[in-house]
Amino acid sequence: MRRISLILTCLFHFTLSIRSSEAQAYSYGASPDSIKIGGLFDGIDATEEAAFKHAVERFNIESVPLGRFKFTAQSERVLPHNSFQASAKVCSMMKEGIAAVFGPQTHESASHVQSICDAYEMPHIETKWDFRIRKENYLINLHPHPSTLSRAYNDLVEAFSWDRYVIIYEDEDSLFKLQDLIKGSAPPKRGVILKQLPPSQDCRAIFREVLRETEIRKVILDCDARKLGSILLQAQQVGLMTYQFSFIITSLDLHTVDLEDYKYAEANITAFRIVDPERSEVQTIMGEWGTINPLTDPMSTGRNFFSADQSGLFPRRSILGGFPYEQLSSHTAMLRTDIALVYDAVQLLGKALHILNQSVEIMSLDCDSSETWQHGYSIINYMKMVQMQGLTGHLHFNTSGFRTDINLDVVQLKETGLTKIGAWDSKFVNKINWKKKDVLETIQDASTLDLRNRTLVVTTFMTDPMTMWTRSDKPLRGNAMYEGFAVDLLHRLSLMLGFKYILKPVNDGKYGKPDQKTGEWDGMIREVMDGVADIAVADLTVNKERQEAVDFTMPFMNLGISILYVVPSVKPPSLFSFMLPFSLDVWIYMAFAFFGVAVIHILLARLTPYEWDNPHPCIEDPSELHNQFTFLNSFWFAIGSIMQQGSDIAPKAVSTRMVAGIWWFFTLIMVSSYTANLATFLIVQDLDESIKSLEDLAHQTKAKYGCVGTGTTASFFRNSPFPLHQKIWRNMEQMNKKHKVFMEKNAEGLKRVAEGNGNYAFFMESTGIEYNVERNCKLAQVGGPLDSKGYAIALKKGSRYRQAFSSGILSLQEEGVLDDLKRKWWKEQRKENQCAAGGDGDSVKPLNLKNVGGVFVVLIGGCIMAVGLAFWELYLKSREQASDLGVSVLAVMIKEFKFAIACKGGTKPAIKKSTESSNGTGSNKTKGSNPYLVEDKL
Question: Residues of the signal sequence (predicted)?
Fold first, then answer.
C-alpha cells in the first residue's frame, strides 16, 4: 500500500507539472522559445484579429507534442485606408522584434507596409485579394489571385453556354476580377451589359432595368459578401428570383449568407467556394471556434474581444459568418474565406520555420536605420516552396508569392441549401468536373449585341493632339478631314469591332457640364444623352457628375492635373565660380597639404647630408656646405609643381626626391580633377528654380496662377478636402478679382504662361502639358500629377455597346497600341522644332574629400616614407663621419638633427677628416675643423 501510495503521489505531481508547463506555454510570450509575429487588422471589424489569435493558439497547442517553437501574437488595429498609421504600427512591431507581418486588408495601407517590409527584409503575409501581378521579394499572398478566379468564372460561363448576360459589379476593382469575361464579350463572342452598383446600395432601379429594358435573364453579381443579403432581397422584391433568371455569384463566401428565403424561389444561384465544410479539419476548427465564449478572448483571460455589449466594436455575430454565436454548432459551413486564410497563413509560416530547421534569431529593426533582417529572405522562400493542405485547400505559390494553383467547389442553391455540384481545377483549361450530368442548365440565346455594319455618330472636341484638322493641300471630306490620337483610336476600334462611324465636332464647342440652376447638360455629354451622337471620343475626363449622366468605357489614357510654368532661367555665374569644382573642405586640405609638403621638404633637405653641396667645386676641401632648399625655394618648388611650371630646383637625395615625386603625383591628380570638373561647371548651366512643387507655388507671391474656370481642374481644387488644395483655390479666387487668372480655354493659359516671364503658372491636365512642352521650349512641367483620372469614351446611359468598346480598349492596351499612338502624336507628329536638352546645375556637384581623399592618403604615406629615408641617409653619412672624427654615430646624428631643425641659414661648416700627428709617444687622433662637434670628445 505504501508503494502504491508513493506511485500515485508521483503520478499526481508529474501530471500537475505537465499541466502547469502547458498552461505556461499557451500564455502569450511566456515561453523562451516563442517567436513573435505581428498582425495589422481593421479597427472596425475585429473578426480577423480574433481568428489570428485563435490560429496562433491552435498552432501552439499542436507544437507542444512535437517540441517545436511557439508563436506569440501581437496584433494592432489600424483605421481603413490610413497608410500612415499602418506604417507607424509596423515600424513599432519590428522594433520590438517579430518574424512576419500579417495584413492589413486595404490596398493603400498594404502597399505602404509592403514597402517597409521589402526595405527591411521582413516577410509580409497577405490574405486579401490583390489584382496586381507584381514581383515582391518579401510578399506572399494566400488569397487566390484574381486572374485565376477570372478564369474560373469564364469557364463556368462557357460551361453554362451563356451568350448574353448582365454583369453587376460593385467598383472598378471588380473589372480586374472579371477581365476574362470582359475580354470574351467583344462581338461576335458574347453580348454583355455592365451595370455598376450605386453608392446608396439601392439596386432596385438596376434590376428593374434588367427586367424591363433587356431580354437577358443571366446575371453575374460581383460584390462584397456582406452586401449580398440586401442585394438578393432587392432582386426578389423586383421580381428577379424566378425560374427565368440565373445568377452567378462571384463571392467565395456565399455560404455565409442566409439564403433561407431563396431556396424555393426557383432562381438558379451558383457560386464557387474554396472552403469545404465536409473536410474533417474544417469541422474540427469550426467546433473549436464554436465553443469560444463571446465575451472573452480565445485564452479566456477575461479580455473583451468579441462582445458588442461591452466594447461596442464588434457585432454580436460569429467571427465565422453571419449567424449568432448560439447557432455556431449547427452551422459548421459558416467559415468565412478570409478567416480560413488567416488560419492557413499562420500554419504556413509555422511549417516554413520548422522546415528551415535552424535557430532564427529575432532582432529589433529600426525604420530609421538601414539594418535588415538576415533571415527574412530564407523564411519567405521556404514559405513559397512549402506545399501543404490547409482549410482553403492545397497551398501552392508561384515565384512571385501569389496563389495561382487552386481548387474550387461549384455550389448551387437547392431546397436543401447550398449543394456541391462540381469542382474546378486551375491546372485544367475550360473544364469543370460535374458530380451529375443534369446539373447544367444550357440556354441557347441566338441574339447578340453585334456592332458589325452599324454606323455610329461620334462627337468630338477639337483640341491638339486629340482631334485636329488634317493638314492637306487637297480638299478633304468626311472623316478624312480629321486626324489625331482620338481619330486613330476610333479607327482602330472600328476595325476591331466592325462598325462604321461619322465623326463630327461638338456643336457648342464644350466638353459638357450641368447648369447650376436647371441641371441641364451641355457639350458632348448633352449630345450623347439626347441621341444626337452615339458616342463621344475626345479628351473627356471621367468624373462623378458625368458618370451619373452617361456611361463610360474603361479609360484609354491615365493622367492627372499638373503645373505648367516657364523653363527656369539660368543663374548668373558668381565672381568666384572658379572655386566651384572643389568643395570648401578640399580647398582647405589642399592648403594644409601645400604648407605641410613645403615644410617637410625643408626639414628633410636639411636633415639628409646629400642635399648639402660644395658651393665652390674648385675647392676640394671647403670650409662650409650649401643647401638649395631654403624656405623661399621650398615654397617656390611646391608652387611651381601645382602650377605645372617647374622652379629650376631639383632635389638630389632619395628622400627629398620621394617627397617631390609624391607631391607631383598629388598635383597631377588634383589639377586633372579640377580641370575636368571645371569644364563641366562651365558647360552645365545652373537653373534658378524658384518653383519646384505645388507647395512652392502656394507659398510664393511673385507668380499668379490659374486654370480653366469651368472645367474639371477647377472642380478638383474647389471640392478637394486637402488644406493645400483649398488654399490654392482661395488664392486663385482672390487673384481673379484683380487679375484674370481663370481662362476660357487651355490655349489662353498656354499663351499667358509663355509670355508671362515667370509671372503666371497654369493648372491643366498632364497630357496637354506634355504635348505643349515638347513643342514650346519656353514651357516646362513643374512637379508630378496632383490627382489620378482618365480619358474614356462616353456612351448613352445603358448603352449595349459599352462593354464591347471596353473590351476593345483593353485589347489595344495589352497590345501596346495605345502607347504607340501616344508616342506618335505627342513625340513625333507636328513637331516643328527640337528643344535642346537643358542643363541641370543640381546634377554637377563639387568634388569633396570623399572623391579625392585617396590622393591625400598617398601624399601622407609618401611623406612618411621620405622621412624614413632621410633618417637612413643621415645614419649612413653619420656612421662615416663618426669613424673619421672618433665619436659615436648617435652623437653625430643628434648634432646633425639639431642643426637641421634649427633652420639657421642655408650653409653649415664642412666636416674635415682627422689627421694623425706623431709628436711624442704614440699617435693621437685630433679633430679637424668641425665647429659644431668640437665640444664633444666622447
Answer: 1-17
